[in-house]
Amino acid sequence: MVESKSISARIGRIVIHTIVITLGLICLLPLWNIVATSFSSSEAVTANAVGLIPVNFTTETYKMIMEDAQFWRSFGISVQRVFLSLIINMVLIVLMAYPLSKSTRVFKGRNIYMNLLIFSMLFSGGMIPTYLVVKNLNLLNTIWSLVLPGAVQVFSVILIMNFFIGVPKSLEEAAIMDGANPLQILVKVFIPISLPALATVALFSIVGNWNDFFSGLIYMTKVSNYPLMTYIQSLSINIEEMLKSGANANSLENMMEVSNKNLNAAKIVVSIIPLLVIYPLLQKYFIHGIVVGSVKE
Amino acid sequence: MKVQTAKTASWTNAKTRKQEKKWNTANSVYHLMMLPGMIFLLIFSYIPMFGIIMAFQDYIPAKGMLGSEFVGLEHFIYMFQLPDIGQVFRNTMVIAFGKILLGTFGAIIFSILLNEIRLKFLKKSIQTVVYLPHFLSWVVLAAVVVNMFSLDGIVNQILSFFGLENLNFLGSNSLFQPLLIGTDVWKEFGFNSIVYLAAITAVDPGLHEAASIDGANWWKRVWHITLPSMLPIILLLAILSLPNILNAGFDQVYNLYTPMVYETGDILDTYVYRIGLLGREYSFGTAVGIFKSIIGMILIISANEMAKKYTDRKLF
Q1: Of A27, A127, A214, the CB nearest to B132
Q2: What is the ipTM of this complex?
Q3: Which of A211, B40, B96, B312 could form a disulfide with A151 if both were Cys (CB 3.0 to 4.6 A apart)?
């Protein structure tokens, strides 16, 4: 850069670096505080002594989690849900995206399907009718209530459809010459060359299902059936605030919740570990997905 | 139709007829491929749409939709008479608009600043950190926010340090909306900056060099080169965010609000959940839900038309 020699430009550079690094810290430190809290003693936490370094370092909270049956049951339900959703979502995405990527000349009726998909994005019956459908199918309190309502991810279908449209026609023609049927073409030609795009929508599915607490809240009537995020939500993280503001000030139960703050922090930390493990993939493919697939020309 | 087929057949030779047959079998395979997905779509998207009938009934679960009594527009009339709904509607729009506006500004400014960081390692580290909150659930982030903003949280400790009065962010009706908007901007500014950063890096570096030689300082180059080059994408995203004006963020509000801040914190989605589902006012809840769905649909279609008109791009 030409101007980097002048003093004012150098000061500007320092200011910009300071702002950007500060913003980075503002994103990181509140999360780090939760980690520090989870490794601190409950006395230190109640006394508000924990900043960025654990006070009275202890792994007691994590030992308690190890023995917490409900935590692991919910963890297991979430893992199960993520895998089932991933399989169903991906199968349906490729199965629908492939025919939809054909022109109406090749696939008669293509536009009818397309309009049905788009309309389902535009208009929805809303929370209550969907709840009643799930209820009437006797899916309440089953893992399927968390998986099936989100089986068709319309946005992902359209994203992959657009990707398939961009696949060179010659590849498909060559496969037809070799006598391949549509399913073989899909599996042997389209899927292998769309792996990055498919990874993107797979990650959409994983993150969405792992983070969702609301389906668990409305479709599960028993706490023992809660997926992890619903379980953590039910730990009443707001209780301390309510206590401070004077509501239920004398409730013994609330007092106990406050001293559980470090344990809850540890549960939160464990609940985000799976996301941190796949975070490098998220960064790589989400960004790809958001730039390439968000809108079409 | 028959005439057409006959006509086509008359001038196609054997080879293309064979191909035609192949396409026809392909056609039925395509329909088969669509089938499983369409069944799920029918059950979980289209059947609930018929649920809107409930909004015109006094729905009683035991009697079902066929047995419940029709009451016409009663629930809609009731809805507009409730003082609640106006307040809830206003809250939804204010919170959503604040998030869109400040979120956009935040992301644009951050992307411009980030682009100035030359050190590869530093830039990558910053990006890694600022994208992180986007991937975390509001269940987790609400714990973080409560931790920060509670009466003895770090924010109030800082206020005390400067001799300022402590503020009850989570329990005050005047501070709750700014808190929702601020923490949402915090969660998303990094991730939203990705698109803007892509637009900035697409600018020809020659433009900047030429401007520098002509004596333009950093501010002038940002104002006259960087921002104009980002304008199309800013316009597009602004238009496309229009339908979100009724989505103020259920997950965030639900995880942060308490009865103390219902007055300014309650939004359409939390209202429907609380009154309709928890309070078992199925018909009334559905009526409010439909009201939202219809306005949302009108907004999406208008946004799509505007995008087509002004930016040559579209959603669908």
Answers
A1: A27
A2: 0.86
A3: B40
